[in-house]
Design a protein that fits this description.
The protein has 5 helices and no strands. It is mainly alpha-helical. Keywords: Membrane, Transmembrane, Transmembrane helix.
């Protein structure tokens, strides 16, 4: 995506949350077996529930306009930075933990879309003033 809007980047991030929801809700045992952290059914269901709530709230905020989407995207980029670092640290400790490598890579990927979207939206906001 060449010049993504903040809203488009939010939708991409929420798509990642949907993938995490399915992974943690449906495929949690298989995914956990290949992570540095192992399986914890209750905690993984909790993550799936959190992802569902994030998607519902996120879609509502994204529909509220450009300024709301920019504010939301700033918070999501903080989360993705922390998620990516957490997964990367686990992957480096357990190099065969492909689940952690996927988590680190997926979050780095949304950062590669979200950060340019924030910079792009800042330029458009400055030009409008």
């Amino acid at each position: 995506m060449r010049n993504p809007s903040a809203r488009a980047a939010v939708i991409i991030w929420l798509g990642g949350s949907a993938a995490a929801l399915v992974t943690q809700g449906v495929f949690r045992k298989r995914f956990a077996q290949h992570s540095a952290w192992g399986y914890n059914g209750g905690w993984q269901r909790e993550i799936a529930v959190w992802n569902f709530g994030t998607i519902v709230a996120g879609l509502g905020i994204a529909a509220s306009g450009d300024e709301a989407a920019r504010a939301q995207l700033r918070g999501l980029m903080v989360l993705s930075t922390l998620f990516a670092l957490n997964h990367l640290a686990a992957a480096l400790r357990a190099p065969k933990s492909w689940s952690n490598w996927i988590g680190a890579g997926a979050n780095a990927g949304v950062l590669a879309t979200g950060v340019p979207a924030l910079l792009n939206s800042r330029r458009h906001a400055s030009a409008a003033v």
